[in-house]
Design a protein that fits this description.
The structure is a single chain. With 118 residues, the chain is mostly beta strands. 8% of the residues lie in helices and 47% in strands. Strands 1-2-8-7-3-4-6-5 form an eight-stranded antiparallel sheet, with no helix packed on it. β7 and β8 (111-117) form a beta hairpin. The longest helix has 6 residues, at 63-68. The chain starts with a strand and ends with a strand.
Length: 118
């Protein structure tokens, strides 16, 4: 997995796999911000509405990066996907911002990439 934060363009791009996506859907994303208003994580509500139930089985996540930098979780009861960009214990979300983004998927609904403008 790669996370590309381009502050000059105010974009965030999360690449889960380099496979080619066959379609995409616009989604509302809740962006978590730190005390300097930098993005530290994101949440997508109603994820099953946009993808299929097996959305995590195709993630190609580099284990070392997963262990040290990223935290992915999914709440089945609330149908909420969460990705924290950095696992530092003292890093807390001070505010949130609603933005629109795009989820790119393969034909089976497995997520390939998420992009959003901050």
């Amino acid at each position: 997995m790669q996370i590309l934060l381009e502050s000059s363009r105010n974009t965030v791009e999360i690449i889960f796999t380099n496979e080619i996506a066959t379609f995409s859907k616009k989604v509302e994303i809740i962006l978590d911000l730190d005390f300097e208003a930098d993005p530290i994580g994101l949440e997508i509500l109603s994820m099953r509405f946009y993808t299929n139930n097996s959305l995590f089985e195709k993630f190609n996540v580099d284990e070392e990066n997963q262990k040290n930098k990223f935290h992915i979780s999914y709440d089945h009861d609330n149908d909420a996907f969460y990705l924290k960009f950095d696992k530092r214990k003292n890093q807390r979300s001070i505010s949130q911002k609603s933005v629109f983004g795009e989820v790119f998927m393969d034909k089976n609904g497995h997520i390939q990439k998420i992009t959003l403008n901050t």
